[in-house]
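note to self: the first set is below, dont mix up w the second
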Amino acid sequence: MLNLDGLKDIVGDDQALMKDMLKQFVETTQADMTHLQDAIAAGRTRDVANLAHRIKGSCFVIGATELADIAASLEADGRKDHSEMFSTLAEQMTAAFQKVVDNICAL
């Protein structure tokens, strides 16, 4: 679920910094996911795309590729104003995010 190699390249052997970055990821992404749900409910496709893009970038930093891939799909749909899959992708993102959080907590 997590490939921390890229993050280790950034922080080196500094475990405290790694834990801090992972904590910040969880907090920031949780807030972004809440805003994403609000944007989906309101039909704001541009906001959906922007928030999904932000989440995707954060995921790549910590190696959460499954979550990043789902966010990329949501971003692409948002940029094309294709809202049909928003709810399904948001549910997938929520489940994938929980897996990432569980993996982080297990470190």
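second set (the one i keep forgetting abt)
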Amino acid sequence: MKSILILDAFTCAAIFLLSLIAAAPIAGLLGLPIIVVTLAGWICLASAALMAIVATQKPPSAALTKLIVVGNLGWIAASLAVLAAFAGQMTGLGIALVIAQALAVLVFAVLETRGAATVGRAALVS
């Protein structure tokens, strides 16, 4: 569970840093408005912070892990909304990347859901 949260936090932090350093070039490559790339980065920063905090808890909070899962599901929904709103102007790379990262976030959500359930069961046994 801890390693999943750390990896998720790392990917979110990386997206934040990329969007902070290179929002304009990334927006151009993807065919998205700069504000979409920038906002995605700031959302990822907040998410990374929560994930890092939960990863350091012993045991990780099942409730906060579920909140992370809900956030990940919200990210997937937002990714689909970005596709719906901007597909006409997005590049092929942009469309492929938005779909690929949404699928990756879905994998994190599934793994974190399983982890939260395991933590919850362990708390009931203790």
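remember for set 2: Residues 38 and 110 are 27 Å apart (CA to CA).
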